[in-house]
Amino acid sequence: MPNELVISYEDARMAAETVVKAAGDRRIAVAVTDPGGDVIYATRQDGASAVDVRNAERKAYTAALIGRDTSLWRNQITHDGRTVADWSDANTTTLHGGWTLRRDSQVIGGLGVAGSGTEDRDEQLALKGAEAAAQLSVDVWLTKRDPTLIRDR
Amino acid sequence: MFQRESLGVADAEKARDAILGALTVTDNPIALAIADDHGVPILLMRQDGAPPRMLRRARAKAYTAANLGVNTVDFRDVEIKAKNRTLSDWGDPMITSLQGGIAIKHNDAVVGGIAMSGNTTIRDEALAAIGLAAMGVK
After folding, report:
1. Which has the closest alpha carbon to A111: A48, A45, A55, A46?
2. In a domain, A3, yes or no
3. What is the percent of chain A where pLDDT is above 70?
C-alpha cells in the first residue's frame, strides 16, 4: 500500500506563523492544507476580512490539489486556452498567493495567503512560508546524509 | 455609525494554547475552530491524525454558536428537540446541533464562537470551555 506524505500540524503552524511574522502589520489570512486541500491550520489576523480567509483557503486548496503554485497554474491554463471553470470545482482559483508544499518530490500540502493588498505580495509572503517548510526537508536531509559520500571539492 | 467589540486573533491563540495544554493521552487528535460573531474563522487547526471531517464539524459548531448566540447543545435541546423542529427550519446548511460549540460573549454581546471536535461531544464541549476560560470572557 502506498504511503502518502502529509505536512504535520506542527510544521503547518510554523509555516503559517512565519508568514504572519513576515507580513508585519498587514492584515492577512493564511491557510495551510493537506494534499487533499483540507485545512490543517489557518489564522486570520485582526482586520483581515471574511473574503481574505476564504481566498487563503482556496489558494492553499488549489496549490495542494492541482500540484501547481496558483500563479504558475494561471499561466499554464491561459497558455492552454482553458479557464478555471474547466475543473468544475468552485474552490479552485488562479489568484496568486498559493504555493504547493513538497517533500521528496511529493505534494505534502498547500499554503495560501490573502489580504496583503496585492496578489504579488500575497505570493511573496506565501513563498516565505513555503521556504520555511522546505527548510525542514533540508534539515532532515542533513541529518541523514553520509558525509563520507560527499566529494571534497 | 456604531462600534462593536470583536474577537481578536490574540484571544483565539490563548484559547488554542490552553486547549492543547489540557489534552491528555486518552484524547483523540482534535480539531479546533474559533470564529468571530459572523461565524467567519479566526483560527482553525487540526492535529495529526484528526480526519478532515472533524474540522468541518468544528467549523459548523463554531459558526452555529456564533450566529445564533447559543451553545450548540442548548440549541439542540431547547430550539430543536423541545419545539419539535429540524435544522432545515433555519435554512442555513452550516447550522448544526452537534454538541461542542460554545458562544463567546463579552459585555452581554456575542463576539464569536469556539468549538471542538475529535472526542465525544461531551469532551468536545469541556475542552471548548477550557479555551473559553483562557480568553477571559464568558
Report:
1. A55
2. no
3. 97
Minimal CA separation from B33 to chain A, in Å: 9
- Does A112 map to a domain? yes
Domains along the sequence of chain B with CATH: 9-135 (3.30.450.150)
CATH code of the domain containing A67: 3.30.450.150
Considering CB atoms only, which of A34, A41, A45 is closest to B44?
A41
**Residue A121 domain-assigned (yes or no):** yes
The residues of chain B scoring below 50 in pLDDT are none
Interface with chain A: mutation pick from B4, B9, B13, B53, highest number of A CBs within 10 Å = B9
Q: How many CB atoms lie within 10 A of CB A13?
A: 17
Read off the pLDDT of residues A24-64 as tens digits, 9 standing for 90 and up. 999 999 999 999 999 999 999 999 999 999 999 999 999 99
Specify whether the CB–CB gap between A116 and A122 falls below 8 A. yes
Q: What is the pLDDT of residue A152?
A: 57
Comparing CB atoms, the residue among A8, A34, A44 nearest residue B41 is A44
- Residue A10 CA to residue A141 CA, distance in Å, equals 19
- Total domains, chain A: 1
Q: Which residue range is the domain that position A82 belongs to?
A: 9-144
